[in-house]
Amino acid sequence: MSKIRLVLAEDQAMVLGAFAQLLALEPDLDVVATATDGTRTLAAVADHDPDVLVTDVEMPGLSGLDVAAELRRRGTRTRIVIVTTFARSGYLRRALESGVAGYVLKDAPIDQLVDTVRRVHAGGRVVDPALAVAAWDGADPMTDRERDVLRLAADGLPNSEIAAQLHLAEGTVRNYLSTAITKLGVRNRIEAARVARDRGWL
């Protein structure tokens, strides 16, 4: 019987090592590569063509969600399982929209991750039912452009620099920020960014 070939992506070395060791104990799983950021993850998937990618959400550079979206754009056959500490509806919703087939929280038993990998490899989708309901109940009200502007504002960039990076007029940037602030029911861009990040929308 051929083994299920895995790439693991996690920016914390200790966690990555633990996952790799535990999954390698399973007779039907083979960890063929590991990565510590989004760019290396894409490269590892391209180099090794794994059956399943097990990835964290928050990593340097590209996030796990960014990686999932890019792999979907490329038409990669690799199935994706997200393993994260974040039970945020926004993250899960974006994961599902990016074609992620499994979503597991890090505090779940390792047996649950192993079972998820096997079921995802077999063509299934594995998501905690309560989280799935939350994902669709907690819809992101912002547009992609509003998210882009708010993400840069959250990094402390002034409107002029945001406008330059996104090739927009400063007035347009102000309008996007104002709309996002109104939609989120907060007083300023700092609160808007905090709320959006807490909900997994940025």
UniProtKB/TrEMBL annotation:
UniProt xrefs under SUPFAM superfamilies: C-terminal effector domain of the bipartite response regulators, CheY-like
Span of domain HTH luxR-type: 135-200
Modification 4-aspartylphosphate, positions: D56
Name of one Pfam family that matches: Response_reg
Domain of life: Bacteria
Signal peptide: none
InterPro entries: CheY-like_superfamily, Sig_transdc_resp-reg_C-effctor, Sig_transdc_resp-reg_receiver, Tscrpt_reg_LuxR_C, WalR-like, WH-like_DNA-bd_sf
Coiled-coil features, chain-numbered ranges: none
Stretches assigned to the Response regulatory domain: 5-121
Entry keyword set: DNA-binding, Phosphoprotein
SMART domains in the cross-refs: HTH_LUXR, REC
Protein name: Response regulator transcription factor
Organism: Pseudonocardia aurantiaca
